[in-house]
Amino acid sequence: MPEVLVNRQLYGRVLRILRICAYFPVFYFIWADHSKLAAVNISVILVAAWYLYFKVRQQDTEKPYYQLWLSFVEGIFAFAVMLCIFIRDSKIEVREPEMMLGIGCVLFLARVVSRTLYLLSMLREGKPLWVSGFWTKATTLSINATMLVYVLNLEDYQQICMGSSMLLMFASGVSFAYRYYRDPMHRKPLSVSNQLTMSRIVLTPVFLWVFFYDNNLNYEDNSLVFKILALVMVAAFMVTDFLDGYLARKWGEVSALGKYLDPFSDKISNMTVFLCFLASDYAPVWMVALIYFREASVETLRTLAAGEGISMPARKTGKWKTAIQGTGILIILVGALDPIGGLIPNWAEIWEYLPYSVMGIITFVTVASGIDYFVAGKDVLKKYV
User: Fold this and answer.
1) Which of 62, 109, 172, 309 is found 20 to 30 A from 328 (Cα to Cα)?
2) Is the dihedral angle over the CA atoms 231, 237, 241, 246 positive or is it negative?
């Protein structure tokens, strides 16, 4: 590659990483109710997106794996900001939760997940990635503008902006699906193990609806039927997490897509549950933030390793982390059912501290696992640091 294009690639990559980093203070400003400061950061993100798309044209020179995973990380951060705004507004008693924003969050997450999986499968098949077209770029800019409107609480423009973003998401999704499925090579059926893995991703938005069925952030006020249903869904997530790997090995269906899809679906389902716990005050913001940053950091490390042709398989600490996260989630959901509250003296006082204690253990194990991954990936980091 000519030196000019290499410099342009590095310049665009640095700007894109800085744009991702600009999301971090947004989370704090939203929860600290500093709307204007959050709006400034989102404005910077919006301008940076326009500059990268139309001036630097960073996507034209970026390597496929970097392009894929940087886009995924950007999408997840944008979704997290939208979800934080929704939860913040839901906690304000005098303000009615904006259901259109909640629907937009679900649609946006589905878009990020499906697009990432499609592009990942293209890479695994040795096909070149498509450069983002007009509808994709317009959708990204529209979503950033919508976040800005909601952060500033401009009620007269909120539904207009969210409606426009939904239409653009639909248009970009149709455009992408048309280009993808018109190729006969992309009509291959998924294996049973990958279908089980996909089921966790598909059912995650359903879990959100079940958890907040009563439109009340206090989960203990939810209907007993939906509490049990939420518990069953989490148990199903854990069972399918075991079965997909077991069946893939037993039936000889181990695939590169499955190796990427399995940990990805675990992160999507577990992080959704943790955000629900955050909304119901079963976990503090800093614990969920640490878990989220660990997951994002490890995925970034794996992306860097893949760019260098280095494989980073799941480590034992990662498997322990997933098991402890699932067990902790089950403990909290069972405790919320209050099945033995009348049998244990002072259960109310115990339950007051139990969720935070369990989440503290989960956070410690998760962060420790992340450190283990970075120690194991020191050879990859040496190439960049």
Assistant:
1) 109
2) positive
What is the pLDDT, as a whole number, of residue 94? 47
Out of 5-14, 202-211, 316-325, pick the least confident.
5-14
CA distances from 116 to 78, 88, 224, 257, 297 (A): 15, 28, 36, 11, 17
- Mean pLDDT calculated for residue range 69-91: 84
Three-state SS for the chain is CCHHHHHHHHHHHHHHHHHHHCHHHHHHHHHCCCHHHHHHHHHHHHHHHHHHHHHHCHHHCCCHHHHHHHHHHHHHHHHHHHHHHHHHHHHCCCCCCCHHHHHHHHHHHHHHHHHHHHHHHHHHCCCCCCCCCHHHHHHHHHHHHHHHHHHCCCHHHHHHHHHHHHHHHHHHHHHHHHHHHCCHHHHCCCCHHHHHHHHHHHHHHHHHHHHCCCCCCCHHHCCHHHHHHHHHHHHHHHHHHHHHHHHHHHCCCCCHHHHHHHHHHHHHHHHHHHHHHHHCCCCCHHHHHHHHHHHHHHHHHHHHHHHCCCCCCCCHHHHHHHHHHHHHHHHHHHHHHCCCCCCCCCHHHHHHHHHHHHHHHHHHHHHHHHHHHHHHCHHHHHCCC
Per the CB < 8 A criterion, the answer to whether 123 and 68 are in contact is yes
* Single-letter amino acid, residue 135: W
- Closest listed residue to residue 76, CA positions, set 377, 295, 318: 295
Spatial distance between the Cα atoms of 15 and 26, rounded to a whole number of angstroms = 18
Q: What is the pTM of this model?
A: 0.56
d(Cα 251, Cα 195) in Å, to the nearest integer? Answer: 14
**Per-residue pLDDT band at 180 (split at 50, 70, 90):** low
